[in-house]
Each structure stands twice: as C-alpha cells, then as structure tokens.
Amino acid sequence: TTPSEYVGYHELKANGVLKDIVIDNELVDTVPADSRAQVIFDKTPFYAEMGGQVADKGVIKNQAGEVVAEVEDVQHAPNGQNMHTIHALKEMTRENTYSLEVDVAFHNKVKKNHTATHLLDQALRDVLGSHTHQAGSLVEPTYLRFDFTNLGSVTAEDLKKIEDIVNAKIWENIQVETVVTDKESAEKMGAIALFGDKYGDTVRVVKVGDYSMEFCGGTHVANTNEIGLFKIISESGVGAGVRRIEAVTSEEAFEFLEERNQLLRQSADELKIVQIKEVPRKIEQLQEQVKLLEQQKQALEDKFASQQAGDIFKNVKEINGKTLIAGQVNVSGMSQLRQLADQWKEKQLSDVLVLATATADGKVNLITAISSDAVKEGYKAGDLIKAIAPKVGGGGGGRPDLAQAGGKKPEGIQEALKAAEDWLNK
Ligand SMILES: [Zn+2]
C-alpha cells in the first residue's frame, strides 16, 4: 500500500510525488494527454469526500507551472488514501513531482457551510431538546443540508430561534480549534460523535469555543465570523421522525435575502406603493375592497334575478290539468336558481317549475321543482330533470320536490323547456 498523507487541514497547495496511476483498473506508469485516470500522490491537499462534505476541486501543475490536469473528484481508496479522479491535459508520469492546487474559492465556501452545520447541530439541541441528533448531512459549496431526528415539523418560531442562535454565534467571532487526540480522551472531553461515522485510534475533535464540540474529519473556518451570515431556506420531512433543514451562508445567504427583497420590491410596484413596509397593509386594504365589491355584486345579482323571476313567474301555462312555469333566466349559477325555486315554493305559484340559465363559461344550469300536492300525485322533479337535461347535453337528478342538472349546450335550453310540456302531456 502506497502511503498518502492529507495535508489540506493546513495548506491548500502542496508538492506531491505521483505514486500510483490507475486506468481501466490497471496500474500503469503514465497518464496520456487528454485522458482520465485515478491517481495517488505521497501527499495531497485535496479533501476526499467524507461525512457529507463534498470533495475538493482544483488543478495539478508540473514543475514548469503549466496545468497538466484538472481534479474532478477525490474519494478514499479502500486503503484510505485520497484517490483523485483527474482529467489530464498533458502527459503525467509516475515518480514525478507535481504541484497540487485546490480551488481556494470552492474550498472556502465548503468550509463555511461545514462549520455552519456544527453550529446548527448545537442550536437544534438548544431549541428542540437534547433528544435531537444528526441523521446525515450534505455540505456543498452553495448550500448545506442537515438531517436530524425530531417528531413532527419544526415550527416557524423555532426555526427563527435556531437561525438567530447560529447567526449570534457567527457574529460572536468564536475561534474554531482542532484537537487531535485518542478516542478515549476525546470522549472524556465530551465530544459528540456524529451518527454513523467510524473513528480510528486518533480522532480529531473540532471545538467552536465552548459552544460546540464534535468528532469531525472535515474542514472548518478558523473563526466563526468567516461564515458571515446564515439563512435557513427550508425545513421538511424525509422519513419517519427525520427532518431536514437546508440552509445557505455567506454570499449565498445574502443573495437569497436579496432575491426576496426584489420580490417585495416588485410587489410594492404592482401595488403602486413606494414604501415596502406598507405592502401588508395595502394587501389587507385590497382584500377588504374585494370583499365589499363581492357583497355589492351579490346584492345586485339577487335583485336582477328577482326582477326576471317576477316576469317569468307571471307566465303560468296549464298543461294536462297541471300548471307549469318554465323559463330561461340570466343569473350567475345554480345557487341563484335554488333561491328562485325557494321563492316559487313559498308563493305556491304553480305545480311544476323549470328554470334554466346559461353560465358565463358556456355551460347550462337547470333546476326543476314540483309542488307538494303534485308530488303526492306521483310527479317527481328527478324524473322531469332526467327527461329534459339531455336537450342541453347533460344529466342530473335529485329529490321528488327538487332536482338539478348541468349541461354544456346552451343552444338547447328552449328545447329543454319545451320538453317539460311534453313530459306533462304524457
Ligand atoms: Zn466538521
């Protein structure tokens, strides 16, 4: 086994001797130009993916300072060495020394998000209780994801408390210290072991002042103030008793807030107000206006419907010994037809009633009603609606005294009204 030392805790650029090259599962001596390979150096500053923290990216240069390869991924080989997946631009040869250079901007974003997970882990326990423990995490340069045990969702109020605590710790400028020690001493110190992680004889304990202490092999900021800002963007469930928080830090947190700010700005513009803080009051005002207008519209519709009904209710035909009122009205829909049928019933205007209306969306509403006397004689509103609804391309049903139907052929309304007369003639 080729030994390989990880030096990325202290330096992000280091010289390494190329020890092993694997192409298509074969150990070889050179990486040809423009090809992919897996390579191991005697030492490397590249972090290999572990504990949810993504691998570093970066470049490899030769001694002349030319970029010879891009590092696309780094994973732990079975024997623990950091195995780099590279895209070689120029030929590379075993036992040559190369300059390994981590993408510093990428690395710094990751370490900010990673350190924020330590603060979040403790803040969750502070707010939700000591039963809460980590159930997994993902630390990317642009965001972090943190899974933890908790029954039920976290309230908006608690999320705010958690976020406030993390930000307070960031702004307290707390030094982050790493202690490498044996496992027993670390446990005596009270360090929290991350769920599912395995530890060797020596362990790294990462302390954020007195606030948090965890076993952790990841990379961290030296002072919490480097994180800048922390913002939770979502909280959701990912399984029985497991919740997930997604959050952003630093520039991404500012961008997130700025996007929200722009949305508010747009809303204020749409509402034609200058002050953003006036937005909620303006929306409340508009909602009250809408409510008032709806009430006024309803009152007018009712009045209009009654006027129309007045005319139709005068037109009583006598067919086969029964009185019939049948007509088309211009109302908003079924609920108004029912109101008219109530009026008809109260005033006992005829034995049989048929009302139809064409709705604004091109459909038809039909209602039929039979007086209680006629019901006793065997006339049924449900039978009548079944007889006439097909004329408007619909169907329906109901009780013996009241039935309703929908249809989609407004041009069939007159035919349907005529069919009611035929039904009485049978
Ligand atoms: Zn860590």
TrEMBL record:
Catalyzes the attachment of alanine to tRNA(Ala) in a two-step reaction: alanine is first activated by ATP to form Ala-AMP and then transferred to the acceptor end of tRNA(Ala). Also edits incorrectly charged Ser-tRNA(Ala) and Gly-tRNA(Ala) via its editing domain. It comes from the Bacteria. Its cofactor is Zn(2+). One of its GO terms (biological process) is alanyl-tRNA aminoacylation. Residues 1-259 form the Alanyl-transfer RNA synthetases family profile domain. This is Alanine--tRNA ligase. Pfam families: DHHA1, tRNA-synt_2c, tRNA_SAD. The gene is alaS. It catalyses: tRNA(Ala) + L-alanine + ATP = L-alanyl-tRNA(Ala) + AMP + diphosphate. One of its GO terms (molecular function) is alanine-tRNA ligase activity. Signal peptide: none annotated. GO terms for cellular component: cytosol. Keywords: Aminoacyl-tRNA synthetase, ATP-binding, Coiled coil, Cytoplasm, Ligase, Metal-binding, Nucleotide-binding, Protein biosynthesis, RNA-binding, tRNA-binding, Zinc. Its EC number is 6.1.1.7.
